[in-house]
Amino acid sequence: MAKKILIVSASPVKDGNTTLLIGWFCEGLGAGNVDIEIIRAASLKYKSNGCTACRSCQKIKEYECVIKDEASIVLKKMAAADVIVMATPLYFFGASAQLKLIFDRMFSLYKWDNDAGAMQTVLKGKTLALIASAFEDVGLDALKAPFCLTAEYTGMKFESLLIPNAGVSGAIKNNLEIKNKAIAFGRKISGKP
Ligand SMILES: Cc1cc2nc3c(=O)[nH]c(=O)nc-3n(C[C@H](O)[C@H](O)[C@H](O)COP(=O)(O)O)c2cc1C
After folding, report:
1. Does residue 98 have its Cβ closer than 6 Å to ligand 1?
2. 43-94 pLDDT, tens per residue?
3. 20: nearest Cα among 167, 182, 149
4. Strands 34-40 and 3-9: what pairing?
């Protein structure tokens, strides 16, 4: 069966560094036995500006967000994916707000039993892959931490491609070294040698 790869592209810039990195990453994934879907987080229509902490998702048996909008559809796709790729520029030492909007609503993909101190999640066993770029060489480790910690907490395998010194949007277009790194990352995630 084809490996399902869901890519959340979370820069507001359509043709910037994040888009370039995703393109090269997909080149590395190759055409064989992968089912790739790319979602542009900045184009999604939301009914709420982030997780409302209503906790209604904890009272239903489905792993679904009760706020029915385009983000809840993405969350369903995450639950069905083998690999979730989050691609973001570094914005003030963290991920873009566009990504954070989705990331917090992944609360609905967990069920907590606080009395028993137990947690179950549909994310367990998947791979979380982070792709991030920054103008400078400071801050990508800070950006990476919440994704890495979440993967650890959740039982997901974590992989990352961090590109410092990428410059402004689109500046990496002719950078062969970065292109090859992104292609290699795609190959790694696809499981190819
Ligand atoms: C609002 C904003 C905040 C940024 N914050 C940082 C930052 O803290 N550190 C840094 O190195 N680059 C920062 N950058 C630069 C971007 O992270 C960098 O140019 C990135 O590669 C852009 O990716 P994109 O073209 O996909 O949007 C910022 C850019 C913007 C627009």
Report:
1. no
2. 999 999 999 999 999 999 999 999 999 999 999 999 999 999 999 999 999 9
3. 182
4. parallel
Interval between CA 165 and ligand 1 midpoint (Å): 10
Contact 105, 78 (CB under 8 A): no
Q: Would you say the CB of residue 156 lies under 6 angstroms from ligand 1?
A: no
Please tell us whether the domain made up of 3-190 is placed in CATH 2.60.120.560.
no
Q: How far is the CA of 163 from the centre of ligand 1 (A)?
A: 11
Neighbours of 64 (CB within 10 A): 17
Integer Cα distance of 23 and 132 in angstroms: 13
- The rounded distance, in Å, linking the Cα atoms of 136 and 186 is 24
Sorted by where each begins, the domain ranges of the chain are 3-190
- Cβ pair 4, 81 in contact under 8 A: yes
